[in-house]
Amino acid sequence: MKKIITAIMAMALFAPAFAGVIKESQAKREVDDAIQALSAMDSRQEIAPFLPQKEAYTARTYCNKARNFLSDSEYDKASFYAVLSTNYSKISVYKGLMAKADKDKMASKLAGAVVPTLKSVGFKRKGNTGTFTGVFDLKTIYAIKRRPQVDAIPAMSEEMVGRVGELAGVLDSQKEIKVLFQARGVTEDHAAKYADSIKTALIEKGIEAARIEIQTKKSNKDGVEITLDNVHVK
Asked: pTM for this structure?
């Protein structure tokens, strides 16, 4: 990639702008090329998040300079900055495509690792569907055997913190996954606190609260059942 960028920049630096006086028609053509290249870069919405800010900003800056110099009839300068702008636009698109390809490759790799990752976290797949369910009791969530007072819910266990981290990685790689917490406790307040412990940990990992639905129910068995729907599995 460095060789390609170097070659492009070399072409710009040795452009005809320094070979002699540039005619108005040539300057206009090169400014038009720069405007079109900038427009082409901006139209690539699929790579917009991946465009390198420095090169994209430089392309815009040089294009504006080229247009201003053209208006002032300084055709040499207009041509020079137009060629630079065109090439920076091309560099931006090239780098954006490369960055997106790397991101897609990583996402594909993560998708292929979803099943073993969820299994290691404690989830079971329902048949061949995209639904996974994990049941977590108090011993797993808090490393305790007895039910705590509702106002004395302890911090999550080190084991559960690790599981939440793995789960957050899957949820982050697949934004379309729906998350349902079915929390159970001797009181609904207990159940809500158990669910909140895991939900808060996921939010701290960057998972949006709106993606998590919580249902509570009184039960003699305390814990949280987490269901993931719409999981993409290769």
From this structure: 0.54
